[in-house]
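Subject: mismatched residue count in predicted assembly?

I count 475 residues in my input, but I want to confirm that the predicted structure covers every chain. Input:
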Amino acid sequence: MRALAHEVDLEIRLLLDAIYHRYQHDFRDYAVASLRRRLAQAVEHLGCLSVSGLQERVLHDPTAFPSVLQYLTVPVSDMFRDPWYFRAVREHVVPVLRTYPSIKLWIAGCGHGEEVYSFAIVLAEEGMLDRTLIYATDINPAGLEAAQAGIYPLDRFRRFTENHRRAGGKSSLSAYYRAAYGSAAIDKRLKKRIVFSDHSLATDSAFGEVQFVSCRNVLIYFNRTLQDRAVGLFHDSLCRRGFLGLGAKESLRFTAHAAAFAEVEHDARIYQRKA
Amino acid sequence: MIDTARIDAIVVGGSAGAFTVLSSLLPALGPAPRVPVLVVLHLPPDRPSAAAAALGGRGQRVKEAEDKERIEAGVIYFAPPGYHLLVEPDRSLALAFDEPVHHSRPSIDVLFESAADAFGEGLLGVILSGANEDGAAGLGAISARGGLTVVQRPDTAEHPFMPAAALRAAPASAALSVDELRSIFAGFDTPSRDRGALDD
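Triage response: the counts match. Full output below for your records.
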């Protein structure tokens, strides 16, 4: 028989408490409904009988936690995903970034790195990459490793190439990767300007001063409390009049910081820190 | 035929052939239905949510669901293209970008299962025409939580596969013609004298 919803939610709360105290990863303010679904998959995948069973495994078997972490994070993305976003970045953000002698970007929740390399390519095309540093952060070490490796199945590049073109790409995407044996590896020149690191929007503090934060399809996984915390970090990390880019269906409307930002481009969800 | 008084929310799912049916069902709810309505329609990903606009009639409040939005009675919410729509335990809405389910994002199962958890016995689930099995597990979950379930009678559906699969997963469901579905929806229309009191 299927457990009642509130029993499962209780088990989830206990699991998240256990994970927090044991591994310092804080999922306690994540949105519950999608977490419930992914944890049900984790229960099945790890051969447990319930979320409580998963809790026991996670507490007593440290090698099980990395597998559970794969279910708690959602790294789904593409290069130049939502091409209009990158088009808007080029139009509204790049001209301002160009005025800085050194440029710093923060890609928060970078997943497997597709968006990080997309930004590196935009900046390379604009001739600004050499004076740019991109901080790419995530909470999932395996994800960060994959992001840093920058190797993707070759069949995904048809879509990446189409996205890049629609994003207003000024060069050929093939100039930035090398294909071999069904995979493609991102060029080392792009990687030189990227620093991958572990950072949690739930527990860590603000980043050094940056001019642009891009954090897309991350906030939807948070409840309002954690959304407020994350946007607060972005605000504190941005320089005056620095930019914030969110996912296509995310907005600052329901957050506590809505008044601290001005909307630059509604459809692309690009905002600018006021003062 | 169906006890609509205990219902706090309606979820509707459909795919191929569901658009026309839905456009004849929604107006029956009247301008201010007593409950919120949440809809997942499988649409081509590049077709914007014009669908939602096209389906709203008679002064109905139809909108694309937003992340962490509070659900309001009387509003018809559509899942945005490309995102799963879920109901949180506090009955606010959430979007997710997880992998597609049954090749679908938004997926009917994802909405129905989360709504079943949030609304329990107070949920009415409706599966319309469609050509894949998305929604079957979701309707089963609603039924298991004590909610009410109905499907468009497969022989009246342009694509019977989806309602037939849903009927197998939730055998207690009523299989109804479009006219019968319409009269159930009409049961949620509020008499105009009550409308001012909706928010009390």
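Residues 108-119 of chain B form the longest helix (12 residues). Marking this ticket as 'not a bug'.
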